[in-house]
Design brief:
The protein is an alpha/beta fold and about 180 residues long. Helix content is about 35%, strand content about 10%. The protein is built from 5 helices and 5 strands. A 5-stranded mixed β-sheet has the order 3-2-4-1-5, sandwiched between helices.
């Protein structure tokens, strides 16, 4: 049986408040503090059950970092890593999807990997960022985002990067944990 410390345990942040219908990547949105504490408790229980180190890495956005702050209050080490952030949608970020020009959405779908919303990043750049990230020594517990986790899963499958949105994998539900090979 593989050692659980040789895996990367990645949770998607709790469901944020008031984001229905919005394009949310780097937009810093709040989560209910009780949900952040509840996820922190689940992570703490998982660490205890599997003998994992009391260290968590999170993206800097509140919806992920609030979970890390709870764990830090309980004596854990909490590190924030920009590389764990959600895709940067640039000028689309925080806007209603219905307010984004249809021709911009069509351009993205036509060049799914390389299209960059103004001031944002392409999916190809997200893949590169996720592939380059390495967990800090002794830290195998992570709180990140659906896009980051889906990208990491895609990389682990070893398939060519998706050329169209219909090939994209479904993101994990909020507060769900996926385990990955721990790239070092």
């Amino acid at each position: 049986m593989p050692d659980p410390r040789d895996r990367l345990w990645v949770w998607r942040h709790p469901r944020p408040r008031d984001v229905e219908g919005l394009c949310v990547g780097r937009t810093d949105v709040a989560v209910d503090p009780r949900k952040a504490k509840r996820l922190a408790s689940r992570i703490r229980q998982t660490a205890r059950r599997h003998g994992l180190p009391r260290c968590v890495a999170t993206s800097p956005s509140r919806r992920a970092a609030d979970v890390g702050r709870w764990l830090r209050r309980w004596g854990w080490r909490h590190e924030r890593h920009e590389a764990l952030s959600e895709m940067d949608f640039g000028r689309w970020d925080g806007r209603a999807w219905s307010d984004i020009a249809r021709d911009e959405i069509d351009a993205w779908c036509a060049d799914f990997l390389r299209y960059r919303p103004v001031d944002g990043e392409s999916l190809d750049e997200l893949f590169d960022r996720v592939a380059a990230w390495r967990a800090p020594a002794g830290c195998v517990l992570v709180v990140s985002h659906g896009g980051w986790m889906t990208t990491r899963r895609w990389l682990e499958l070893g398939e060519p990067r998706p050329a169209s949105p219909d090939r994209w994998l479904e993101a994990p539900r909020h507060a769900t944990c996926w385990r990955f090979e721990a790239a070092r």
